[in-house]
Amino acid sequence: MFDVFKSISLSHKTAPLAVRELIALNEDEAKRLMLRLRDVLGLSELLVVSTCNRTEVYYTASEDHNITIARLLLIEKGLTDTDAYLPYFQQIPNHSEAVRHLFEVCVGLHSQVIGDMQIPNQVKQSYQWSADLDLAGPFLHRLMHTIFFTNKRVAQETSFRDGAASVSYAAVELIDELLGERSNPTVLVVGLGEIGADVCRNLTNRGVTNITLCNRTRSKAEELANELQVRFADFDQLATEIQQADVIISAVQRDEPLFTPALLQNVTVLTYKYFIDLSVPRSVDAAVEQIPGVLVYNIDHIRTRADEALNRRLASIPQVEGIIAQATAEFGDWSKEMMVSPTINKLKNALEQIRKEEIARHLKHLGPDESERMDKITKGIMQKVLKLPVLQLKAACKRGEAETLIDVLNDLFNLDNQPVDAGDSSSHY
Known about the structure:
Helix content: 55-70%
Distance between the termini: 23 Å
Order of helices and strands: EHHEEHHEHHHHEHEHEHEEEHHH
Radius of gyration: 30 Å
Structural class: alpha/beta
Strand content: 5-15%
């Protein structure tokens, strides 16, 4: 009865990058999928999370629709050979496991870079898509706000968000420290492999917009520049771009250094010019630092920063898991109570019907004041009669024994034939 929340997940843990890229959804695709799931399966609460590292669908339903949802997702992406891709999906049909999985995803426990600070914002965006389509009901609203509050606790009470735990994040954090209060520094990124592209995205996420991309393959620089709304330059203009940049990030792959004293011989350094070398082997010649005003930070320096931050985050995992356990337990109690609220309302309606029928028999013999007094007295009696069954139901929920008590109440009061007053609430019991 309580297994209503389920999910499917395709992530970096279950699928290679080539597959993840095929299945990733943009906003329009995600919304189309949600509307299709609503129309085909009759689902009323849906959350679709899609990032470069994961695509997941969460939903509430009494039946397990995981395989069907995975197939519809694949078809939405034009992948008609669905059997070939189904093994990449993790199926989570159990309510408690699906709830905990979403908590862990949102705080960054399942991210490639553990404690990823982008994932909460990405999930908030997904939640907004659900709200836009009226596919976030009471359960999903309560779940998401509980998760957001839990994420704040993790940030405030642990070291799980401290520092930058990846090379690309650490490079961006170093730039923040080096340039201090300087507004919108000019950053040149040379080499747009995985690390270089990650640095660019992290820079724009931090609000840095004065970025120039430079790559030997011009089309690659142009494509990423269009995506991030920044400028790009041809590779033969490298010396000119170095002159204009405050920070030069190098992530090129070559056997010999690209940035040499010869390349920089005509570059004028008025204050400081920072080179951040993320390449192996090094692409910035150590002799460059002999030029007045030029400072070089290599990959070892960046990795040391990232490793220190990662170790602090790893040490915080038990504390994070404890916060999640507490939050999921409290949410579990609430969700179970929510599931018995229809029975509570049916019981209330059944007793209210009896009360009204009995009062109606005597109203013709009573004056207005007596009728009002009778109404108040009988309502008070009904509230007291209801109190114990409601408390017992809620207690049975926490013990996982509510179904038996619900069956007894249904039989005693013939509740199956009693309508549920959707506007009513049992929260005052």
